[in-house]
Specification:
Urease, subunit C, domain 1, TIM Barrel
Length: 419
């Protein structure tokens, strides 16, 4: 059924070139006030002033009419999540509240390896049930596309299990999930060194993931207590030869050189970047590496240092925001909260934060030809926000301001029908 949305106070179209928005263009929302839009099948047919859109619809046309009475914008695109896991890490949470650091928790048996033990004990059925639950939460909060990493398996059987859960669950959900292989998330407990473990991943796991076509990206955690510069470059170059696109977790716990790795292998993104310096930023821009910030992780971990977003923006980096949704350091599926943290603690403007969590995220995931803008012939992935002014999305925090989510031209969440 076609859909007509009227009474839109502000329509954030993000109209522009199909390329990442950088520098001053990062603030361009291309707003139409007193707007309407018409969805035919899965795509945007018309978008503009309400009177103009209504004139273009045939009188006998059958469609659903939605009165927005609020802001309409592209649905959120979450480009960094760890959404397949068995249990929340509540002991880690308690230890951190008592003053223990990330590395303290890891040494005590918590952290990533705790989640790896949980994955080994969980069936695919349980993992799929969990993923479906989280998918509903993403959709309720206005996210319709997510990247999903493995990385809690840390061996052939369980990494494959995680990625198969993503592949098998995606077709039954109104949420696009783009898979990433993150076997190099932590050194598995039965290996004596990072060198030994990376050799195992290269010899046994990466070829199997490639053969089964279970992932688009390969990621690695380059940071204190994880993987070093040279071995990470070697690993990612090997992964690229198998057809994967490189990504890097880096500069989260210290200035570790991970952004240098990302630049040297021309990774599509470097993620976290709390400790990245000016030289790192310049190298990333020169190499075309996008910067993905994950401020809800900083917030949850009580970290006072946030990425220097303004330096990245002023130097022309493609800046992206994501939740880092995971069981240990960022149990947050709501991109609206991420916007609020980015504005208040990273000093991004609301406009920059919106573009960074929609169209720029689409560019990183390679889906920007179909989603991230509200213009004719783009896929109808959008949200109706219960606000009169888009700035309220970051202003009011701690709640879900989304009242309708539309995915591929179909209403997949309607707050008015939840009770």
């Amino acid at each position: 059924m076609n859909i007509l949305i009227t009474d839109i106070t502000q329509l954030l179209t993000l109209k522009g070139p199909k390329a990442a928005r950088i520098s001053k263009n990062l603030s361009d929302l291309s707003i139409i006030k007193n707007a309407a839009l018409y969805i035919e099948d899965e795509k945007i047919k018309y978008a503009g002033k309400e009177s103009d859109v209504i004139k273009r619809i045939p009188k006998n046309d059958k469609h659903i009419n939605i009165k927005a009475n609020g802001v309409v914008m592209p649905a959120f695109i979450d480009s960094h999540t760890h959404s397949v896991f068995a249990r929340p890490r509540l002991l880690d949470f308690e230890m951190r509240a008592n003053g223990k650091s990330y590395l303290d928790i890891k040494k005590a048996g918590g952290g990533i390896n705790r989640s790896a033990r949980d994955i080994k004990e969980a069936s695919k059925k349980i993992l799929a049930q969990n993923l479906k639950y989280f998918a509903r939460k993403f959709i309720e909060c206005g996210t319709t596309t997510v990247e999903v990493k493995s990385g809690y398996g840390l061996d052939l059987i369980n990494e494959i299990k995680m990625l198969e859960v993503v592949k098998e669950t995606t077709p039954v959900l109104p949420l696009d999930m783009i898979p990433t292989f993150l076997g190099a998330h932590s050194i598995a407990e039965n290996f004596s060194s990072s060198k030994e473990y990376l050799k195992y991943l290269k010899d046994k796991v990466l070829p199997a993931v490639a053969q089964k076509k279970l992932a688009k990206y390969v990621d690695i955690f380059v940071d204190d207590g994880h993987f070093g510069i040279d071995e990470s470059m070697d690993y990612l170059e090997y992964a690229k030869k198998l057809g994967f696109i490189a990504r890097v977790h880096c500069e989260q716990l210290a200035h570790s050189g991970g952004s240098y790795v990302a630049s040297m292998v021309k990774a599509v993104s470097a993620d976290h970047l709390d400790f990245a310096d000016s030289n790192d930023i310049k190298r990333m821009v020169k190499s075309g590496v996008s910067a993905i910030f994950l401020p809800s992780s900083n917030y949850f971990m009580g970290v006072l240092k946030y990425p220097r977003a303004r330096n990245f923006i002023e130097n022309g980096a493609n800046v992206v925001l994501a939740t880092d949704f995971n069981p240990g350091t960022s149990p947050c599926w709501n991109m609206q909260f991420v916007l609020s943290v980015a504005v208040n603690y990273m000093k991004m403007s609301v406009e920059e934060a919106i573009v960074a969590s929609t169209y720029n995220a689409a560019c990183v995931l390679g889906v920007n030809n179909s989603v991230g803008m509200i213009v004719p012939n783009m896929q109808a992935d959008l949200v109706v926000m219960d606000v009169k002014d888009y700035r309220e999305i970051a202003y009011y925090f701690g709640d879900n301001l989304n009242k309708i989510t539309i995915k591929k031209g179909r209403i997949v969440y309607d707050k008015s029908n939840t009770f």
